[in-house]
């Protein structure tokens, strides 16, 4: 199989480049048509490798692409999930090559979506193409369910899974949208944090006011906003929202050991990120803070005059975007309510606060001893010569919890990314070596099932 | 004179509309050519009313327009100052009519620059036109010095005044760029606060990071920024920068009485601004806070993801614009250094701060008993039937201090604006009644000299 992959690698990369050229940014309405182009591209790719019943399924948002091949009688069924949408690309000026003009440099392919998730999704498509080419059939039954709203927290896919549980039923859900521990050390993620994303808007007067006439005498929306935002953490980096930590698992010695077992080089990380210091909740390690502890991060802030030069106003409006990572029994809606209460309690006189929730996803935990995960580990070991670790990841893939719960099926997070691949950031890229080895690993896995 | 004004009012307003159509925004480099058009317009207007030696004087920034008429032998010389540049117009969506499409509604002319300062400057041009038309000469010698950088704190005019002190020498500097107390109650401002405007930029990692992988474990530039911004005031609204209040005059009973004498209707102000509460430094009244106390306001803030939807990043950069109003002996450069020290002291680990100063202007105080001011008061009284008050204004006109000091001349701040005219904000306007009465008042004043 390795030689087949090697022989066709250049063609595969050209096809992947085509996919990466589509700016299928699901969060921006001006890219609506591009997102649909992404769906069409997937439809075509699935049809070309012999998938059947390939369809675009309309939703209230961006479409879902379905396709299957169900002729392996008596064999297990694998549901392959991935997403063809991508994050926004800004700030554009920090990209070394254009985000939607895929470029290969030093064994890596650079483009928005290279690792998250077009490159990783494409691994499965090419693995099935090779298996079909070799045998004219597949060793297992396969269903594809590819969405275009992962980066906006899968609002259409969750109800779709509920309504189509029968159609999607499988013995395992296979997802490649996570990362290795580091180059050469594969990982099957067994824990994902939940997520809450929200906006907060502060309003004071009915218009911006001249600071010469009103400054010092009226509420300033930015003062009020920075006050409530700063109040969300204490000096030790702990989140101060009342009852925020209810439902967070106690850190046992066993759990600390498991987390500590995942290698982490602090000096290397600081150097890579250009940081003098790491920072976070006191009493926890970097891996604990980013993997199993809940967080609250301000993702963006805007208000008042931001142009060139000076405008001496007292701004009347300011807003921020906030997101939380949640763990254990933390419920996103409950956390949202608690944050709202906190903001109201800390707001300054004369300011009005409005909030909106944009994403809600529950935390998820998977069992590493499950056969479907152990067989995936065998496949990795065969290709990479190293048995994967089973880390608890800090990220969120909101739909994983829904797949596991609604389909009552193990979810296998067979990732081929690297932590250093700048996902959601400028200069996102994907190691081509993991792309080709990924195809090989997926083939191995499907044989083993 | 009143009839002459009335007869030509419509033409005057059409001419003013022409002036207001020029988007001469001095702070935005893309409007550089428009600012020059503003200068050309002033040159033409001065030539048309018979001014001599009318010239565009180049500077490192936007040009200064000079013109004079010096044939009133043995009579005093008045230097008329004004500015043809305007503030930026954003946020555009809050304007009821376009900022550079002047529109008359209910006796007011709406446009950016209507009151600040094109409308007020135009009063002088039209007053001189009428005097020339009536007598073929003027009762005093007149010099015009009109700049295009007032809204960016007059960086070129200050050195220009130093270099041309002889050319600009006068018995009074006459400026209309301030406001009445309220409709029907004129004012000659006798105190202007100084100003400091600066930017602060916070940088953490070398790129934005995915909050799933790094959130909670690395410094967040917005967290760091809101922390230092919130640290600038205490809960009582007092500025916490060390030694900030050094040089601020002690509030004597006499001064409190003077300030309290200026009428102020708190309920009316709150209603007008749509505010439940006013806000400010504890222990001081609104008029004290906005007139004679120093202030520190955050004018704008920006950082991270501000687009539609969600981008769960840990932002690596965030910045704010800050401006102070200064009083008494407060020196802008010293205050800037003190704020920088405060920011460094309060910054979070792993964040780097850079600052830049954009405006520096010293506070200024004028003597209300000076003959040149008392004659101006007489002119107002004759036209409006009310003697003007002599308030201490909260705003800053940086060049006033330079004119007074370098030319050693009384400065007469003969304003015709109203506090409610939204200067520096959407829907800026100018009362046409004060425009016509202003022309009459200026004519009266020049006769009285």
Automatic annotation (TrEMBL), chains A, B:
Its EC number is 3.4.13.-. Keywords: Dipeptidase, Hydrolase, Metal-binding, Protease. It is an enzyme of class 3 (hydrolase). Signal peptide: none annotated. GO terms for molecular function: dipeptidase activity. This is Dipeptidase. Residues 193-349 form the Peptidase M20 dimerisation domain.
């Amino acid at each position: 199989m390795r030689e087949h992959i090697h022989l066709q690698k250049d063609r595969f990369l050209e096809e992947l480049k085509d996919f990466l050229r589509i700016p299928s940014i699901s969060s921006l309405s001006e890219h609506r048509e591009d997102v649909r182009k992404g769906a069409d591209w997937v439809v075509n790719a699935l049809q070309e490798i012999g998938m059947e019943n390939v369809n675009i399924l309309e939703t209230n948002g961006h479409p879902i692409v379905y396709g299957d091949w169900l002729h392996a009688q008596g064999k297990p069924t694998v549901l392959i999930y991935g997403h063809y949408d991508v994050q926004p690309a800004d700030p554009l000026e920090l990209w070394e090559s254009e985000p939607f003009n895929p470029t290969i440099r030093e064994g890596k392919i650079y483009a928005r979506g290279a690792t998250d998730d077009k490159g990783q999704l494409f691994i499965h498509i090419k693995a099935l193409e090779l298996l079909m080419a070799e045998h004219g059939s597949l060793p297992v039954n396969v269903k594809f369910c590819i969405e275009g709203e992962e980066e906006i927290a899968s609002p259409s896919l969750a109800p779709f899974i509920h309504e189509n549980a029968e159609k999607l039923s499988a013995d395992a859900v296979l997802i490649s949208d996570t990362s290795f521990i580091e180059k050469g050390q594969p990982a099957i993620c067994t824990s994902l944090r939940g997520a809450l994303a929200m906006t907060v808007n502060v309003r004071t007067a009915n218009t911006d006011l001249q600071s010469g006439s009103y400054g010092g005498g009226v509420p300033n929306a930015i003062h009020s906003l920075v006050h409530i935002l700063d109040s969300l953490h204490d000096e030790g980096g702990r989140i101060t929202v009342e009852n925020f930590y209810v439902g967070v698992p106690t850190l046992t010695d066993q759990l600390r050991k498991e987390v500590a077992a995942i290698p982490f080089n602090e000096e290397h990380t600081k150097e890579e990120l250009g940081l003098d210091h790491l920072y976070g909740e006191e009493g926890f390690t970097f891996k604990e803070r980013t993997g199993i502890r809940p967080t609250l991060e301000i993702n963006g802030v805007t208000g008042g005059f931001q142009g060139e030069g000076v405008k001496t106003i007292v701004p009347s409006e300011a807003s921020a975007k906030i997101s939380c990572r949640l763990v254990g029994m933390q419920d996103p809606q409950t956390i949202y309510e608690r944050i709202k209460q906190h903001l109201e309690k800390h707001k300054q006189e004369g300011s009005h606060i409005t909030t909106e929730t944009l994403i809600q996803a529950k935390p998820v935990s998977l069992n590493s001893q499950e056969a479907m995960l152990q067989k995936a580990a065998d496949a990795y070991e065969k290709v990479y010569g190293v048995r994967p670790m089973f880390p608890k990841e800090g990220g969120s893939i909101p739909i994983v919890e829904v797949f596991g719960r609604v389909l009552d099926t193990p979810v296998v997070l067979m990732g081929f990314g690297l932590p250093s691949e700048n996902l959601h950031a400028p200069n996102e890229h994907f190691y081509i070596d993991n792309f080709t080895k990924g195809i090989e690993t997926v083939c191995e896995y499907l044989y083993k099932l």
